[in-house]
Amino acid sequence: xxxxxxxxxxxGREHALAWKLAQSQRIGKLYxxxxxxGTRLLGENVPIGVMEFEKLAQFAGExxxxxxxxxxxxxxxxxxxxxxxxxxxxxxxxxxxxxxxxGSKAFSKQLMRDSSIPTADFAVFTNHDxxxxxxxxxGVPIVVKASGLALGKGVAICRTFDEAEVALxxxxxxxxxxxxGTQVVIEKYLEGQEVSxxxxxxxxTYKMFPASQDHKTIGEGDTGxxxxxxxxxxxxxxxxxxxxxxxxxxxxxxxxxxxxxRGATFAGVLFPGLKMAPEGPMVLEYNAxxxxxxxxxxxxxxxxDILDVLEACVDGRxxxxxxxxxxxxxxxxxxxxxxxxxxxxxxxxxxxxEEAEKISDVVVFHAGTTFDGTLKTSGGRVLGVSxxxxxxxxxxxxxxxxxxxxxxxxxxxxxxxxxxxxxx
Length: 424
Ligand SMILES: Nc1ncnc2c1ncn2[C@@H]1O[C@H](COP(=O)(O)OP(=O)(O)O)[C@@H](O)[C@H]1O
Ligand SMILES: [Mg+2]
Fold this sequence. Notes:
alpha+beta; Rossmann fold; Dna Ligase, domain 1; five-stranded parallel β-sheet; 14 helices; binds adenosine-5'-diphosphate; binds magnesium ion; phosphoribosylamine-glycine ligase activity; purine biosynthesis; ATP_grasp_subdomain_1; manganese; EC 6.3.4.13
């Protein structure tokens, strides 16, 4: 029987999920709430916001949706899964209790300490004077983090004492992240390359995805401010099988077990962000959902029908479900609005997507776009240009050729996605 699906979210991650869901052998109707200028071509966009849980649940009930799939962190952390489950609605992803692993860095750091999961040395503060004293004692560089969700803006890498003072003032006294800054994590600065790990779990067992690597900062050569992510490659060519197995055991297994022991069994995608430090792999943080843009490359690499995978996860049948991946590489180049991640203008017409998608193995996912008769920019990250190839270089060449065809005022993208991995 055809499965009607409600997909919640509006970014590149959700366009990629919609693209893959639309290819399912068993998909019925696909609704995306609220969706974007790209998802409208794959299903029906529904004007309900990601945090409007009651309205979403009502919609799912009325339309007799068989499965709801959620993208964004704030929905999980806010308890969308609990709201749906309380009404007997079938939904994919972690409960509010399990999503704390992302929603509270204080919680996740303590869990890591208790379970001997490798992570930077840290302390948690609610008192500003004590936090200042800790920074004085430990010296710089040091990392200051608002414990709660902060749209990817709550982390300050402080290279001077002044920078740490400013970060602590903003988070703890000026409360720029509101309650997300009630607790502050201060931790040791770590050197090394970053890697994104994804594992899907049904609460009983789990399956690993290939590793991926995002590029966090706005500037080439990993300079400038942090963003939501400017481009991703997968798999990571220099991360070998034994390293990945080590991460699987010491991070993924231990974390799922620790959550289960705390009565917060995790079902969904667990995405630890790692730093490959000289002292070994270290967990920077956990996310309780697909990464974005990581999800965009995963959907390009996934061979198996995604509906089979998500339903097996919801129904606790993951151990019987194989997950197959295309051999070769997938990459994505994020095309952003000029000025992002700071102030930027929107509403500019977008051209060139069709031409970009004529290049073999290229798919353009929308992130910040709207359609009102014309396709226009509506966010900081506007498009994700993805490509697959037999080699990393082939995938990158295709993606960059395609990215050059996209046109809108103020268009910006990094030209060095995957460059370090290629050179290694
Ligand atoms: N201890 C650390 N040492 C060095 N860099 C860090 C450290 N913690 C975080 N970062 C950098 O800051 C980014 C954001 O931190 P993260 O903990 O992932 O928070 P969030 O994604 O919630 O903003 C990381 O991707 C990494 O580049
Ligand atoms: Mg992060």
